[in-house]
Amino acid sequence: MNGDAARNADAASNGVADPADRRDGPDTAGAWSGGWRPGEAETATALLNCLVRELTEPRADGASGHRLTGTGRTLTVGAGRWPQPPLAVDGVAVRGFEALVALAEEEARARTGVDNPTLGAEIRDSRDVVAAVLGARQAAAARDEKPVDDLYLRSEQALVAGHRYHPAPKTRGGGAPESWLPYAAEAGARYPLTLLGVREDLLGGEGTTGAIDALWGDAAPSGYRVLPAHPWQLALLRDHPTLAPDALGALGDGRLRVLGRTEELAYATSSLRTVYLPDADLSLKFSLEVRVTNDVRRLWLRDLRWLAPVDELLASLPIAAQLLADQGYRTLAGQGEHGWEAYAVLQREGFAHRVRPGLTPLLAAGVSEGFAGNPLDGLTADQALAWWCRYVELLAPPALDALRDHGVVLECHLQNVLVAVDAQGRPGQVLFRDHEGVKLTTDRHAALLARFGPEVPTPGVSPAKGRDRLLYCLVVNNLSEVAGAITARHPALAEDLWPAARRLLARHADLLDVPHIPGKTNLLLRWLDADGGDSTYTPLPNPLSTARS
């Protein structure tokens, strides 16, 4: 397979998707009626998820509802895959979005003893982003614009609601929609990249980036190398007092030149700063000077310096064929650490040499969320159970083996996993991507982790933390959400999915019998204004432990 042509041919010939089908998965907004503005249903669902997971506990008397641990009050919510109306606290209805935001702030304040004057603005910004995306999608439908034919890209661009367990999953730093909407994956964005020319002696980086030269190297004049740039990042940098090209003096003295725009269109993917070029079968990951969920999305030097060592280690593993390699990066040197990060672009391997013939890669997060052509749609209950079992056995054993046998913690959450399906939509392969989040256990990789000296941050974690991180990504973030998508379609399977998974993973009994697994506390993380790398967790019942075959 190479690029989108083969994928589209498969989709067109076997009926996996109808490009005119505009379904976008579960109707999140269906239960939210009566005074809720566009975008508020999706944002409120995520906020309620955080409240229930992080700031409640079961009531001691076993009664229905959740005890809010900050104030001791009782929260009741409607049933369903995710919390929804009717909402009440101590029997008094919570009416409207602002009342829900106020409830979250009050409970977080009572729980932590500290205040946060900015999170409410992030939540509202996330709401406004969702509203703008929904408006853009509705406008496209009114113009009778068809969704992108490529099923892979459609799955990447399906995440209108974003992270379902983050209080502000769609925040874009408070910018006006016209500043970011042209680059929003959820709105189907595709756009040319900006090409910069960097004087050869100021081109930094490491690893393999030859695909960039193959595409655009001829655009660089003699003595220069081409450096693609995300147009949104360049717009953000224009307002930066020290990193903008003019502020660096780079444009004026010829160190950096603007060469023009690419003829090829780059398609925005779910991470926003990563784009895919279908004809070239190439992914590029950029820095973005904007907070998305928990972090400003730069390619940080602390991660870039470990790119090559981690990639070399991963290439030596038995599961190397299932990993999309982060092959290398290039950037503007000579402007300090901040300039090095701000202008960096990472080259990621495409699908041609990884995806088996006849299979179409899909983003697991898109499968969970829903999109036109989702392989979960239209399955019978028996087919859905078979789909689940195949997905589990393709996804979980390689990730668990990597930890147990090699001390490698794959960040196998929904946005870093691709499931490749056959002509009938059945899973045939799972791929893992984005090595920035890979961790190495200190007991197995002490020598490698010491490579740059004791003062340099490393991707090392203790074996216990490595296990917790893997279980969160694999079970809580990934399998639980896919199970939720299946049971939303087939409620009768709720009692069957986890026992089936337990049988498939019997050789990993040491993990199956852990009574609790960690759930990331994104609301508390943002409330305490902690760095995304300082994540905290709350214990959740392990569905693999409680399942009985």
From TrEMBL:
Pfam families: FhuF (PF06276), IucA_IucC (PF04183)
Limits of the Aerobactin siderophore biosynthesis IucA/IucC N-terminal domain: 152-335
Biased composition (Low complexity): 67-76
Residue ranges of domain Aerobactin siderophore biosynthesis IucA/IucC-like C-terminal in the record: 386-531
Annotated metabolic or biological route of this protein: Siderophore biosynthesis
Domain of life of the organism encoding this protein: Bacteria
GO process annotations (BP): siderophore biosynthetic process
GO molecular function: acid-amino acid ligase activity
Residue segments, region Disordered: 1-38, 60-79
Family: Belongs to the IucA/IucC family.
Protein name as it appears in the record: IucA/IucC family siderophore biosynthesis protein
